[in-house]
Amino acid sequence: MSQFANFEFQNWYPLFKHVSPKARVLVAPEQFREYLLSDGLLLHTEESDSETEWNTPETEIQHINKKRATDSAITNSSASDNDNIKNVKNIKNNINDNDSESDSDSVEASSFLKKPPAEFHTLIEQAIAELDGAVMPKLNWSAPRDAAWMLPGNSLKCINANDIYSALKSSDYIVHDLQLQPENVVLVLRQWFDLHPATEFRCFVNNGELIAISQRDMNYYDFLESRSSQIIDACKVLASTIVSKFPENMFVFDIHLTKKDKAFLIDINPWNEKTDSILFTWDELNLENTSTTESAVPELRLVSKEDRTRTFSSKPHSTSQVPADFVDMEKGDLQDLIEQMKAQRAKEA
Ligand SMILES: Nc1ncnc2c1ncn2[C@@H]1O[C@H](COP(=O)(O)OP(=O)(O)O)[C@@H](O)[C@H]1O
Ligand SMILES: [Mg+2]
């Protein structure tokens, strides 16, 4: 499809299976793409297999209304506080209204719903079972990292196909992927493992040479500095494996460092300003394009104690994430929430 095809998961994974977490790649039927792009969130139910396409069980309509109400409040982020209060009230009303299911909104909702394709659903459930019951989903390019809030534990750990649908359908990153990728969509399921953010690093390969390594998580971890040489060595070993087989010589790869100081490949990204350069700048990275020094040591950058202060100023995915408070609106005091948000904004400004 594009010049970036080498960076699609299903294209690089077969080359590096032996150094990457176990995964299954499922070629998605067109109906799955349509399902992901359709409005509302209709999950799979056993009964829905035998139903006509638009006959929606009550609980699903409730789920949809809750999501739609939440969405409409969130997209209105530039509105005044008064408007926000109104929106928040609407959410509450909308959710309460779901008890009387005959409202016209629900009828209207059912007309744009699509359900997940049944055969593909079965393949997903089988793959999850083969991967020991828990997976992290992604498409050709992206994981729905902005939608982890949809799932229990606020992580992308999916234990059934419905978890996967909830995450994918709530993610702006996934919509973006699907818009770029009109065909040959794949659903990647990677076996889940608990991965501490301090063990993740991003490695920059310029002209076939590993020149830079950045810590990925923006928190300070005091133990990382003393492990610098192990981190660099592990990244170098993995870099040489990748360079020997990967068709590009400029790329950025992400690793997880195991307790035994082995680097596992998590992802390969294009050498492109759209790829986050984290603790480096793209200007710095692009300058280092002379491969004169034979055994140059890559530069490792870690978040320092002094950097800590800027750590919390921008949370990842904060632009697309819905605050948990909105989802759990019934319990809270609405005015309180607005006040908290105002105070938070004032602090950030
Ligand atoms: N198998 C897995 N189990 C648990 N977490 C994972 C797994 N694979 C990836 N992750 C986490 O998800 C993040 C994003 O994964 P990645 O494949 O790079 O997606 P994206 O390209 O959208 O960032 C990784 O940095 C890692 O923290
Ligand atoms: Mg990635």
Automatic annotation (TrEMBL):
<protein>
    <submittedName>
        <fullName>Cell proliferation protein</fullName>
    </submittedName>
</protein>
<dbReference type="InterPro" id="IPR009772">
    <property type="entry name" value="CDC123"/>
</dbReference>
<comment type="similarity">
    <text>Belongs to the CDC123 family.</text>
</comment>
<dbReference type="Pfam" id="PF07065">
    <property type="entry name" value="D123"/>
</dbReference>
<feature type="compositionally biased region" description="Low complexity">
    <location>
        <begin position="80"/>
        <end position="97"/>
    </location>
</feature>
<dbReference type="GO" id="GO:0005737">
    <property type="term" value="C:cytoplasm"/>
</dbReference>
<feature type="region of interest" description="Disordered">
    <location>
        <begin position="68"/>
        <end position="111"/>
    </location>
</feature>
